[in-house]
């Protein structure tokens, strides 16, 4: 209430009474509170969006570097024979590069640019299939309890990424209970609105709750930021929750964390219900047995990339497969070469390039040389693989085996 009291005076100036006006300001106070909360939510969203853009750009550059490293090390490994010590060092370097590739995938997951193969997934079946793995990973001092509805609709998500997300949540819960405790994994169907401006819809909520130490408000606000971790040095990358956040956002859902210091943490992964009767994730597998077909007849390949290191490394891998290669630094140079020569059998182009993107280059090539095969190479998931032209995609980073497989599939 807002109260104003004014004195009432007579002609002599003496107070003879009071006038009181009382106003109900509940709506105004609630509006101010809602506005403050909306501003805070907008600030958090803008901060996460900015971090996501930065992270995605860094991951893109790392993918280019890892492509060079993996490709070059792979060729050197093939050419060194009989030197066990050197081969061992090379294998260690390749393993480290692959670990770096895994980190970039997590960074792309946070930036919502990871490669997903969504399909209809039965959450109960998926978690039951993980029970043996969870038993060995969580330890004997952790009790796991599951609570699922008898009839639960499938969610539309990448099953492998969902399994990894649930595993990360349960490992985080375990680490929050060093002396042991209980983890409750539950799934239910409920109405959920991803934002204040959207109407609630039926979602599936997968919740992982622990009886651990919990988090204070400041830690909770930063928990999903990449590289932020409350674990000790060397015990975590700080990318687990950010990866799950990215998976949820990219899948049309949301990750919500609830925690109170000393009273445990609950992570809720809200995912949209699949509208498919059967999963759409069943795709024809590549015929990996025909990798050697890339060496059947030498191809004339036009390689396009704005990164000179990637050009050099990828050219070496292609030539090592027995093909002839010509390179171009951008889409305009590539188009000039295609107009000048009609002998190219295949174009392999990067997707993110200044001036002309790989997709724009592919459109131009489709008009100039409709029969010319083309492969788009990218570390991002916004590469248009499902367009009318059906361009195949070569994810970065790639090694020589994956490159040979892509070439074999194109020429099949």
Structural description of this entry:
The protein is α/β, with parallel strands linked by helices. Among the domains are: about 120-270, Histidine kinase-like ATPase, C-terminal domain (Heat Shock Protein 90, 2-Layer Sandwich); about 290-410, 3-Layer(aba) Sandwich (Rossmann fold). It is built from eleven helices and 14 strands. The strands form four sheets. A five-stranded mixed beta sheet has the order 4-6-7-9-8. Helix 8 links the parallel strand 10 and strand 11 (about 325-330). Helix 1 crosses helix 8. The longest helix has about 55 residues, at about 25-80. The chain is elongated. The N and C termini lie far apart (about 80 Å). Mean pLDDT is about 80; it is low at about 275-290 and about 380-390.
List keywords for this structure.
about 400 residues, alpha/beta, Heat Shock Protein 90, Rossmann fold, 5-stranded mixed sheet, 5-stranded parallel sheet, 11 helices, about 45% helix, elongated
């Amino acid at each position: 209430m807002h109260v104003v009291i004014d004195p009432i005076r007579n002609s002599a100036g003496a107070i003879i009474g009071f006038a009181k006006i009382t106003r109900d300001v509940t709506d105004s106070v609630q509006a101010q509170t809602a506005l403050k909360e909306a501003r805070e939510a907008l600030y958090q969203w803008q901060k996460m969006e900015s971090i996501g853009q930065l992270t995605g750009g860094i991951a893109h550059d790392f993918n280019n570097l890892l492509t060079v490293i993996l490709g070059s090390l792979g060729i050197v490994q093939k050419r060194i024979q009989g030197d066990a010590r050197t081969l061992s060092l090379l294998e260690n370097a390749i393993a480290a590069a692959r670990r770096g590739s895994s980190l970039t995938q997590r960074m792309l997951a946070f930036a919502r640019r990871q490669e997903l193969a969504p399909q209809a997934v039965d959450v109960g079946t998926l978690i039951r299939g993980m029970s043996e793995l969870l038993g060995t990973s969580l330890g004997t001092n952790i009790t796991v309890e599951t609570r699922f509805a008898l009839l639960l609709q499938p969610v539309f998500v990448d099953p492998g990424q969902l399994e990894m997300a649930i595993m990360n949540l349960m490992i985080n819960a375990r680490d929050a209970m060093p002396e042991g405790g209980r983890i409750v994994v539950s799934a239910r169907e409920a109405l959920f609105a991803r934002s204040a401006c959207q109407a609630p819809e039926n979602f599936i909520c997968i919740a992982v709750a622990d009886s651990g130490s919990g988090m204070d408000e400041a830690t909770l606000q930063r928990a999903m930021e990449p590289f932020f971790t409350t674990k000790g040095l060397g015990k975590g990358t700080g990318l687990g929750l950010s990866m799950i956040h990215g998976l949820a956002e990219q899948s049309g859902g949301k990750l919500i964390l609830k925690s109170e210091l000393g009273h445990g943490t609950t992570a809720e992964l809200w995912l949209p219900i699949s509208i498919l009767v059967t999963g759409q994730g069943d795709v024809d597998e590549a015929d990996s047995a025909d990798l050697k077909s890339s060496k059947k007849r030498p191809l004339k390949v036009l390689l396009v990339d704005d990164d000179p290191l990637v050009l050099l490394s990828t050219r070496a891998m292609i030539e090592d497969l027995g093909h002839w290669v010509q390179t171009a630094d951008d889409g305009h140079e590539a188009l000039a070469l295609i107009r000048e020569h009609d002998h190219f059998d295949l174009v392999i182009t990067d997707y993110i390039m200044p001036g002309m993107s790989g997709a724009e280059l592919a459109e131009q090539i489709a008009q100039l040389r409709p029969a010319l095969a083309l492969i788009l190479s990218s570390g991002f998931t916004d590469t248009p693989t499902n367009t009318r032209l059906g361009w195949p995609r070569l994810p970065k980073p790639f090694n020589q085996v994956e490159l040979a497989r892509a070439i074999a599939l194109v020429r099949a």
